[in-house]
């Protein structure tokens, strides 16, 4: 069964408590929390203060995806806010290994996200040091975009790299995940499905989460 991580970017911010209550009572495994700075991506979302709210609202894993420049400046703030997994972008880190050391040193799990154009082979020398790879299956910044099909080949290549080394690294797919493509994503070798619009715009979000769990 895949790990299902609804992306709160698509939640209703006028009544967040209701969406948190729904997620908490659902089969969702993680909260996926997208932090955007208006520099690394052309959108601005929220920061540690809001993550702290989510931390208090749930006992589920808080999976924090930093779409920001200079993530090292903020890693400690996100740890204090309650992040369990902290994912930084390969493209935003000049000293990626140092970023990983920092995140792990702060007691969080470390994830690396790759934009659609970034090859998975670039992770060869850090794969053993990380807990998760987040493959962006849309260009980051906005919910509700269409899944980029080439991602399936990237998943297969990454799955081979991980299995060849005998590692336990989660493969998370982020962007455009639907009930129609979720099975092909999992069959290709991914085990974490992020879903924003598919969950929060569904007539019955709780049922949609259960359907994604069962694909
Ligand atoms: O990080 C991002 C977008 O940059 C994602 O987490 C989206 O929030 C996913 O939304 P959907 O494509 O599932 O609607």
TrEMBL record:
CDD domains: RPE. Its cofactor is Mn(2+); Co(2+); Fe(2+); a divalent metal cation. GO terms for cellular component: cytoplasm. It holds the Pfam family Ribul_P_3_epim. Substrate binds at residues 7, 65, 141-144, 174-176. Catalyzes the reversible epimerization of D-ribulose 5-phosphate to D-xylulose 5-phosphate. This is Ribulose-phosphate 3-epimerase. It comes from Lacibacter sediminis. The gene is rpe.
